[in-house]
Design goal:
257 residues; Rossmann fold; 4-stranded antiparallel β-sheet
């Protein structure tokens, strides 16, 4: 398997305080790599640097062999990197289908004039986006809810809708920021299966998630952060037995006990 995403010595400081410091790892095609750590460990900050929201203070991000450090999110999306967010970014008053279609705007972009005039090329792009969005909704189990207003869906369904919209960009690398947060056990299992299916199709997945059962179940590789530093990495079995990881989550005194 080839490395689709390479994070090399990435770091950033806010007001002189290092939020993330010298973090490196790689994600290969078809692999699920999870980033875990206690609250405040720097996980979302790391995601924001990789996805172009923050400009790293040090290090670099390499996407499919290209240095994309600090590149704007929409340019990264065109190069094959897509992400979801910890807080839902769904248009609640739009239908489920309309939300999914928005993911095709970068992929199916065309001349503005053609759209304004309703030319045949514009109508063809709209039909293509509609058909693609419906296929994605079927893939995530939301095809029967296509015409429903998104705000009426359950929380778990909204999480799957956000993943569907990210997949509309046909990503090579997919960043998922707490996709199971706030979900019940059944919803978490549905998202678990969906992530595994996406990875099986060859997409490289970088995951931040607090549900440790889910992380240990689906991850090929785990990177552990604490206070912005990488303190461990490896397969789930090795990481779960690492004394530094146990201490970070439970506190050194409890870990010794």
């Amino acid at each position: 398997m080839s490395d689709l995403l390479s994070v090399e010595g990435l770091g950033i400081a806010f007001g002189g305080i290092k939020a993330v410091n010298d973090v490196s790892f790689r994600v290969r095609a078809g692999e699920i790599v999870s980033v875990i750590g206690p609250n405040g460990a720097g996980k979302t900050t790391l995601f924001n640097m990789i996805s172009g929201v923050y400009l790293p203070g040090s290090g670099r991000v390499v996407l499919n062999g290209e240095d994309v450090t600090g590149m704007a999110p929409h340019l990264l999306a065109r190069r094959g990197l897509s992400r979801t967010f910890q807080n839902l970014q769904i248009f609640q008053s739009m239908t489920v289908l309309e939300n999914a279609v928005t993911g095709y705007h970068l992929q199916e972009r065309g001349p503005v004039l053609a759209d304004l005039l309703g030319l045949p090329s514009s109508r063809r792009r709209a039909r293509t986006a509609d058909a693609g969005a419906r296929r994605l909704l079927a893939r995530v189990g939301l095809d029967r809810a296509a015409e429903r207003e998104a705000g009426n869906l359950s929380y778990g369904s909204l999480k799957r809708l956000e993943i569907a919209r990210a997949l509309a960009l046909n990503p090579k690398v997919l960043l998922l920021d707490e996709p199971a947060a706030g979900c019940n056990a059944v919803e978490t299992e549905e998202i678990d299966h969906l992530i595994a299916e996406v990875a099986a199709a060859g997409v490289a997945i970088l995951l931040v998630e607090h549900d440790m059962k889910m992380v240990m179940r689906i991850s090929n590789h785990i990177v552990v952060l604490d206070h912005g530093e990488k303190i461990a990495e490896g397969n789930p079995a090795a990481v779960s037995q690492n004394p530094a990881v146990i201490a970070a989550y439970l506190g050194a005194e409890n870990a010794d006990g």
